[in-house]
Amino acid sequence: MRARTHFLTQLDNLWLRRTSTLRALVSPRGVGQPPKFSRTVRDRLIGEILEDATSVLINDHGHAAFTRVTSSRHLRQIRGRGLLERGRNLLSWADNELNGPIIYVFWRGRKCLYVGKSSSPRRLWDYEKSAYLIQATCLEVFHVPRVSELGEAECLATHLFGPRDQKIQPSREKWGKKCPICQRHDAIREELQALFRMK
Length: 199
Ligand SMILES: [Zn+2]
Description:
Blueprint: H1 2-18, H2 20-26, H3 39-69, E1 73-77, H4 82-97, E2 102-108, E3 111-118, H5 132-135, E4 138-143, H6 150-161, H7 180-195
Antiparallel strand pairs: 1-4, 2-3, 2-4
Helix pairs in contact: 1-3, 3-6, 3-7
The site of zinc ion has 6 residues, from helix 6 and helix 7.
């Protein structure tokens, strides 16, 4: 996996740059300057390392974590001519088939457009006249048995599906338990910032 290799390479790179002055104090510098270390370089490398680490975590644990907080899955093609008909078809299906807290995902073929959460399928009526009804080809719905895990489920779905229209940091909302990927991401960032602290 590219991200796994890149994570290790950039971590070594960060350490090499951080210690370049120390190395130069012991052994004379070779030809050319040692790689520069600055706040800009540090922040860029930490950003890349975090992005790679998150990709690895999602790949390794994302699906299992999402499966743990969701129960059943429903997929519905959005059919009909025009906004009103498509809305009516989809919402009457939702009223009949769904209940309880849900994560809903609008798809256009294999492209994820939007991930949302709600404590009730009634929320889908807010999309009665939404452009998603025209743009999307289907709606995927996952039941979340525990309402306290809705925030975590939404965050995991966002990591896994990479929606085109993404809300910023969904897990930052006060919605019960935090996402395990985001928790680990924050722990890695803290560790990196502690290791490569600058005055
Ligand atoms: Zn998350």
